[in-house]
Amino acid sequence: MNEEQNISQILSVLKEKDFRLTPQREAILRILLSAEENHMTAEEIYSITRAKNPEIGLATVYRTLDLFENLGIVARLDFCEGGRKYELASDQEKHYHHHLVCLGCADIIEFNEDLLDDLEARIATQSNFRITDHSLQFFGYCSKCRDPKNASPA
Questions:
Q1: What is the C-alpha separation between 78 and 81, in angstroms, rounded?
Q2: Are 138 and 120 in a shared domain?
Q3: pTM of the entire structure?
Protein backbone atom coordinates (compact mmCIF):
# COMPACT_ATOMS: atom_id res chain seq x y z
CA MET A 1 0.00 0.00 0.00
CA ASN A 2 1.44 3.42 -0.91
CA GLU A 3 1.57 6.45 1.37
CA GLU A 4 -1.52 8.14 -0.10
CA GLN A 5 -3.57 4.94 0.27
CA ASN A 6 -2.41 4.66 3.90
CA ILE A 7 -3.38 8.28 4.56
CA SER A 8 -6.76 7.73 2.91
CA GLN A 9 -7.37 4.66 5.08
CA ILE A 10 -6.35 6.51 8.25
CA LEU A 11 -8.48 9.50 7.23
CA SER A 12 -11.46 7.12 7.13
CA VAL A 13 -10.68 5.95 10.67
CA LEU A 14 -10.48 9.56 11.87
CA LYS A 15 -13.74 10.57 10.15
CA GLU A 16 -15.51 7.52 11.54
CA LYS A 17 -14.66 8.74 15.05
CA ASP A 18 -15.43 12.42 14.24
CA PHE A 19 -11.80 13.62 14.12
CA ARG A 20 -10.22 15.75 11.40
CA LEU A 21 -6.87 15.21 9.74
CA THR A 22 -5.34 18.53 10.76
CA PRO A 23 -2.11 19.72 9.12
CA GLN A 24 -0.22 18.80 12.31
CA ARG A 25 -1.71 15.30 12.43
CA GLU A 26 -0.96 14.80 8.76
CA ALA A 27 2.66 15.94 9.23
CA ILE A 28 3.14 13.46 12.10
CA LEU A 29 1.41 10.72 10.13
CA ARG A 30 3.68 11.29 7.12
CA ILE A 31 6.75 10.99 9.35
CA LEU A 32 5.47 7.68 10.70
CA LEU A 33 4.64 6.44 7.20
CA SER A 34 8.05 7.38 5.85
CA ALA A 35 9.77 5.56 8.71
CA GLU A 36 7.69 2.37 8.76
CA GLU A 37 10.69 0.20 9.62
CA ASN A 38 11.75 2.41 12.52
CA HIS A 39 10.49 2.58 16.05
CA MET A 40 10.54 6.24 17.01
CA THR A 41 10.19 8.16 20.26
CA ALA A 42 7.84 11.13 20.45
CA GLU A 43 10.89 13.37 20.66
CA GLU A 44 12.35 11.89 17.45
CA ILE A 45 9.02 12.36 15.68
CA TYR A 46 8.87 15.94 17.01
CA SER A 47 12.39 16.73 15.83
CA ILE A 48 11.76 15.46 12.30
CA THR A 49 8.32 17.05 12.08
CA ARG A 50 9.55 20.39 13.43
CA ALA A 51 12.24 20.58 10.74
CA LYS A 52 9.45 20.73 8.14
CA ASN A 53 6.78 22.38 10.31
CA PRO A 54 8.46 24.79 12.78
CA GLU A 55 5.13 25.83 14.33
CA ILE A 56 4.42 22.36 15.75
CA GLY A 57 4.94 21.79 19.48
CA LEU A 58 6.02 18.71 21.42
CA ALA A 59 2.69 18.68 23.28
CA THR A 60 0.89 18.44 19.92
CA VAL A 61 3.03 15.44 18.98
CA TYR A 62 2.20 13.70 22.27
CA ARG A 63 -1.54 14.46 21.95
CA THR A 64 -1.55 13.24 18.35
CA LEU A 65 0.28 10.03 19.25
CA ASP A 66 -2.18 9.42 22.11
CA LEU A 67 -5.10 9.95 19.73
CA PHE A 68 -3.56 7.71 17.07
CA GLU A 69 -2.91 5.04 19.69
CA ASN A 70 -6.50 5.19 20.98
CA LEU A 71 -7.78 4.86 17.40
CA GLY A 72 -5.47 1.91 16.67
CA ILE A 73 -3.41 3.82 14.11
CA VAL A 74 -0.15 3.51 16.02
CA ALA A 75 1.15 1.07 18.58
CA ARG A 76 3.07 2.26 21.63
CA LEU A 77 5.96 0.08 22.66
CA ASP A 78 7.68 0.29 26.05
CA PHE A 79 11.33 -0.78 25.98
CA CYS A 80 12.52 -0.15 29.56
CA GLU A 81 15.67 1.98 29.26
CA GLY A 82 15.00 2.25 25.52
CA GLY A 83 11.97 4.34 26.38
CA ARG A 84 8.57 4.54 24.82
CA LYS A 85 8.52 4.25 21.04
CA TYR A 86 5.81 4.29 18.42
CA GLU A 87 5.19 2.47 15.17
CA LEU A 88 2.30 2.21 12.77
CA ALA A 89 -0.16 -0.43 13.88
CA SER A 90 -1.29 -3.18 11.58
CA ASP A 91 -4.05 -5.69 12.18
CA GLN A 92 -2.11 -8.13 10.02
CA GLU A 93 0.77 -8.11 12.49
CA LYS A 94 -1.32 -8.82 15.56
CA HIS A 95 0.24 -11.72 17.46
CA TYR A 96 3.04 -11.99 14.91
CA HIS A 97 5.05 -8.93 15.72
CA HIS A 98 7.64 -9.08 18.46
CA HIS A 99 10.90 -7.29 19.14
CA LEU A 100 14.54 -8.06 19.80
CA VAL A 101 16.10 -5.16 21.72
CA CYS A 102 19.87 -4.73 21.68
CA LEU A 103 21.24 -3.62 25.05
CA GLY A 104 24.43 -2.40 23.34
CA CYS A 105 23.27 -0.08 20.57
CA ALA A 106 19.51 0.08 21.37
CA ASP A 107 18.57 -1.19 17.90
CA ILE A 108 15.16 -2.82 17.72
CA ILE A 109 14.78 -5.78 15.40
CA GLU A 110 11.34 -7.06 14.53
CA PHE A 111 10.65 -10.78 14.94
CA ASN A 112 7.61 -11.75 12.90
CA GLU A 113 6.90 -15.31 13.97
CA ASP A 114 4.60 -16.23 16.78
CA LEU A 115 5.53 -19.22 18.87
CA LEU A 116 3.12 -18.46 21.71
CA ASP A 117 -0.26 -19.60 20.38
CA ASP A 118 -0.30 -22.84 22.42
CA LEU A 119 0.94 -21.08 25.56
CA GLU A 120 -1.63 -18.32 25.16
CA ALA A 121 -4.46 -20.87 24.78
CA ARG A 122 -3.30 -22.77 27.87
CA ILE A 123 -3.07 -19.58 29.96
CA ALA A 124 -6.53 -18.47 28.81
CA THR A 125 -8.04 -21.85 29.70
CA GLN A 126 -6.34 -22.16 33.09
CA SER A 127 -7.07 -18.60 34.18
CA ASN A 128 -10.48 -18.18 32.53
CA PHE A 129 -9.08 -15.00 31.02
CA ARG A 130 -9.96 -13.80 27.50
CA ILE A 131 -6.64 -12.80 25.95
CA THR A 132 -6.94 -10.33 23.08
CA ASP A 133 -3.25 -9.79 22.30
CA HIS A 134 0.24 -10.20 23.65
CA SER A 135 3.63 -8.60 23.20
CA LEU A 136 6.99 -10.24 23.43
CA GLN A 137 10.40 -8.60 23.81
CA PHE A 138 13.79 -10.27 23.98
CA PHE A 139 16.75 -8.32 25.33
CA GLY A 140 20.33 -9.11 24.38
CA TYR A 141 23.08 -8.09 21.96
CA CYS A 142 22.85 -7.85 18.18
CA SER A 143 25.51 -9.26 15.86
CA LYS A 144 27.17 -5.83 15.47
CA CYS A 145 27.59 -5.43 19.23
CA ARG A 146 28.87 -9.00 19.65
CA ASP A 147 31.38 -8.71 16.79
CA PRO A 148 34.87 -8.11 18.31
CA LYS A 149 35.86 -6.09 15.20
CA ASN A 150 33.25 -3.49 16.16
CA ALA A 151 34.38 -3.21 19.79
CA SER A 152 35.84 0.15 20.73
CA PRO A 153 39.42 0.13 22.06
CA ALA A 154 39.75 0.08 25.85
A1: 9
A2: yes
A3: 0.68
